[in-house]
Here is the input.
Amino acid sequence: MQPSAFRPSTRRPATRDRLSRHPATPRLPTAQPACPRLDFRSDTRTVPDARMRAAMARAEVGDDVYGDDPTVALLEQRAARMLGTEAALLTPTGTMANLLAPLAAFGPGTPPPRLIAGAGTHMAFLESAGLRRFARIELTPVAQHFDGLPDLDALAALLSAPAGRPTVVCVENTSMMHAGNALDAAATRAVAALAHRHGAHFHLDGARLANAAVALDVPPAQLAGPADSIAFSVSKGLGAPAGALLCGTSAYIAYARELRGWLGGSLHQAGVVAAPALIALRRLPDLAADHRRAAALADGLAALPGVTVMRPPRPTNMVMARLAGLSAQECAARLAGHNVRVLPLPNHHVRFVTHRAHDMIGVREAVGAVTAVAAGAGRRPTENSRTGSSP
Here is the structure.
């Protein structure tokens, strides 16, 4: 398998899904909002349903800065139990969880660590500027294989080189730029063993670890087991409006909690955020339906002339496709003309992410839109396709 050619970004700090606001992403006019059923840009496009909104309204709250918000405490306990760790910390975003993870890895008084992550991971591709600016952490990219697993020989060479400071190794599961492939526990253990052999802290960026667990039909704790820290998002396919959990030992989380306050992540009556997240934790089985819709979408797109679909070994809820004769940006713009929203990527593919707002009818409509775009790929785009207006 060939390593990825992605390189970390030097752009300004990013939020957890900065790709959703990439400058090249075509925008629909305000008079024509995207149809939720046909918005495939990200599973962050989910909105809290009636049950989540009701839970927010009746949530029992305290002040989490003082440690007495009971709903937050319950969420952190359940997340830690789900991932098999001693403790968990609610953070506003996955980006903050990933910023806290290396900062808290070696305790107070240690220099900022060296961070090694796959060149195509979210941390390397979209979070490296924030790590550098706010934590003085320089991210070192390592090549990845097609499935998203870091190249172990390349990782070993980096770990063997003198660094002069402690090291954190990060693996992302699922692997965002590798069509959402789910890495199994054996793959994670191999990286963890190598990292620990060199005295490194092993962090698992599990923004979509729930999807990986469902795809592999294993408990999340099995995938998280080898990691020293885990970031787990509840605001992707699980559908909560905000939040991520940073999980690890009690001592690690206590220090991360202190750092969270320094970074401006102090939460007061956060029970209104934790309440829908508690519902989200119970919805892991629902992700299987998202995976089925993604599989149907991949099959439909792969059958089209001129369309190439990336096929990961263990697919989840992402589909990455490339249309012959079109850049990713132009493909996304033309699909927007059919009211289908996708995300253009720098690997020349567009990304579809299925989530709870989608159904099989929407999947078929998306395939129909790609059929129309592929058929006209060699023609000059119309004014409508440039602006995103309906044809």
